[in-house]
Fold this protein.
Amino acid sequence: MEKKLVAGVIGLKMGRHHLKAVIDSGHEVGAICDIDAAQMKLIGDEHGIPEEKRYTDWKQLVDLPLDVVLIVTPDQLHREMSETFLAAGKHVMCEKPLAIVREDLDAIVAAAEKANTKFMVGQICRFTPSFVKAKEIVDTGTIGELYYVESEYAHDYAKILHAWRADPNRHGVVGGGCHAVDLLRWFAGDPLEVFAYGSHKLLPAAPYDDATIAVLKWPNGICGKVFVSTGCKRPYTMRTLFYGTKGTIICDNTSDHMELYTLSEDGIAVNPEPEIIPIDINNHNALKEFEVLADHILNDTPVKMSAREGAKTVATCMAIVESAKTGKPVVPNYEF
Ligand SMILES: NC(=O)c1ccc[n+]([C@@H]2O[C@H](COP(=O)([O-])OP(=O)(O)OC[C@H]3O[C@@H](n4cnc5c(N)ncnc54)[C@H](O)[C@@H]3O)[C@@H](O)[C@H]2O)c1
């Protein structure tokens, strides 16, 4: 294998997937960090991380000989940690959403674009097998030209509405719905305008709507819809549809297959039976994500899921939230 990277992982809940990815991809763990000693012990012991590589203060990682730092802490901490490690010359991967307030988005984009190191945002759907397969099908022209795209983020937060998730700025559309928005941006580009309605019946303690429906307009005559429900009474999933002029893809991130409808021989009517494409379910494909990051670092390739990309996704989410509040269409602000 090429040179081994030495990685530090901060925040060991979702971060445990990233830690495993570092190990499984053959790279080295230089440090793990969590303010919760019990969580650190649990995850550190599980992976045989020696005591001297365990830290409770993330600032102690700044002067360690780490190549890359994975920031997997609450969204409110992303900015300070990203700025600090970029300034210290480290490569950085920061979890989604990049940030939850506009000033933090601006600051992270500026810091990432000034740095000589790589910065990647962990928008995991770009590495989810079903969505990667759908992108391949769309890019090869199998379903023709896209004209309608739709994705939903359905995830019941009833048990995970912790203090930082209940921050009024951490609206469900920004926090989790950014997955669906980013996915559609990946396929269709930057939305030109959004319009949304909200509803609040399931999570009375949440300082924001727990269901939001948004319609979006893209360039090239593409329109679409995003539905976010953070109180839904159903298992987590992201049902997603791609409608093209020659076919349709129906997929999600929690099924072992996806459906592809294509035209019959007359070139007009659709085949009534879809092609069933088997999918290796891997909703949190942190291994692939880390392999791509390692390639960016080791081979100096441009980061596709850059700070600017992550910020544009959040800017679209913020426009949706604003539209639901004001009852007016909103043009997302992509000026960073
Ligand atoms: N890509 C995905 O699908 C996905 C899934 C879940 C969470 N996330 C993102 O990952 C991040 C973390 O989410 P989570 O679900 O793990 O949250 P969590 O609250 O379950 O866990 C956060 C962890 O970070 C630790 N922590 C908090 N402050 C810290 C600090 N100052 N220094 C070191 N450790 C600290 C906590 O003790 C905890 O162990 C968030 O940005 C979230 O949006 C992404």
